[in-house]
Design a protein that fits this description.
Length: 144
């Protein structure tokens, strides 16, 4: 169970010392941040992990592609069942965020969020912009 904390003018009870100067508190915070950044820098990158997997298994890329296709088919099934919008399914396929899709389509992210809701209506012009941003040949696939 999470302990509740109360906010005061200069600290959060339970998270920062109740005694000591603001300078000593700042020093403690900096030590914690430095420690975290040092640990984070020692972690392998996604590219490092992918290279390691490829070295260990020459057919890794085939397995990865098959898993990616399986995920896409699952999302398309969710679209057919009315659980997911086609925009969301295509965005997941590309591995991009709503903000990235909005940027590609020249729209605001809240508009993408609204359009991803079931039953949302959109104009043909909007559907064409989003289809183009998703790399779809037929914008009609996005229309409800």
């Amino acid at each position: 169970m999470l302990q509740q904390h109360t906010f005061t003018e200069s600290r959060v009870d339970g998270l920062m010392p109740t005694t000591g100067s603001p300078v000593s508190v700042l020093r403690l915070v900096r030590v914690a941040v430095d420690s975290f950044e040092s640990h984070a820098a020692s972690l392998p990158t996604l590219d490092d992990l992918m290279a390691q997997f490829r070295a260990e298994d020459p057919s890794f890329d085939e397995h990865y592609a098959a898993a990616d296709e399986e995920l896409y088919q699952v999302t398309l099934e969710a679209v057919r069942n009315g659980e997911l919008s086609r925009i969301t399914a295509e965005r997941i396929r590309l591995g991009i965020t709503q903000a990235e899709l909005a940027n590609r389509a020249g729209m605001a992210q809240p508009n993408i969020s609204r359009l991803e809701k079931r039953g949302a209506s959109m104009s043909v012009t909007t559907a064409k912009k989003i289809a183009d941003a998703l790399g779809l040949e037929d914008y009609k696939e996005l229309l409800p």
